[in-house]
Amino acid sequence: MVRTVKTPEVRRAEILQAAGELFQELGYDSTSVETIVRQAGVAKGTFYYYFKSKEEVLAALAQQLCADMVARSQRIADDPQLGAIEKFCAIITAQNQTVDEGQALVEDLHRPENRALHERSNIETVLSFGPILAAVVEQGNREGVFQVEDPLSTVQFILAGSLFLFGHHMFNWTPEEHAARMQAMLLLIERSFGAVAGSFAAVLGASIQGEE
After folding, report:
1. Do 8-50 and 62-211 have matching folds?
2. Contact criterion met (CB below 8 Å) for 69 and 102
3. What is the DSSP letter of 144?
4. How far is 134 from 77, CA to CA, in rounded Å?
5. What are the CA-CA distances from residue 178 to residues 29, 100, 167, 191, 211 (Å)?
6. pTM of the model
7. DSSP classification of residue 4
8. Which of 64, 70, 105, 187 has the fewest C-beta atoms under 10 angstroms from its C-beta?
């Protein structure tokens, strides 16, 4: 029988896929390295060649989720057929969809013992999405629908604030409190961008309500 030789990239991706499926099905705590090894069909030594621990696998999955979100957002930002407001709303919608698809991973990141990893992921989100959203805001400036002197700093403040306020579930908002703060954030975005009141709040509101 001819032995199938896989590239390191393929083997690593298979381990990540197996771990992601198990985290989704069993939960992070109930998934062991042994379980991941069996699911991926590799030797334990192969696992440790690519990852030092289960925690490192979670970090890689979080990085992968962020990369997927960035790729989706960049495609929207590069679409010449969309205006700035359309792009901004579409990017937020795409982010929410990606988070929903990786909900189990997001919940694992929210666990207290993974706080440091979650904070690193938030930093990566601000650094990765900042330039993409800033480019959209700059387009809005050219279109005359936004008036922002420093697009990058503005969107990074908004991203950091929203991640802290909603990302950790530390405040335990009631549904009513959550909705009120979401509406306040939408108003803040419109005012920060110098946009006409209500110009994209309705679209973003419908998208963001999906997080509740």
Report:
1. no
2. no
3. T
4. 10
5. 28, 17, 12, 20, 10
6. 0.80
7. P
8. 187
Q: Which two tokens stand for residue 147?
A: 């008036």
CATH code of 62-211, in short, is 1.10.357.10
Q: What is the CATH number of domain 8-50?
A: 1.10.10.60
Residues 58, 117: contact at Cβ < 8 Å?
Answer: yes
Buried b / exposed e across 36-63, counting CB within 10 Å, b at 16+?
A: bbebbebeeebbeebbeebeebbbbbbe
Q: Kindly report, residue by residue over 106-144, the tens digit of the pLDDT.
A: 666 666 666 677 778 888 889 999 999 999 999 999 999
Give the list of residues 6+ apart from residue 206 with CB closer than 8 angstroms, or none.
none
Look-up of token digits 């192969």: 46
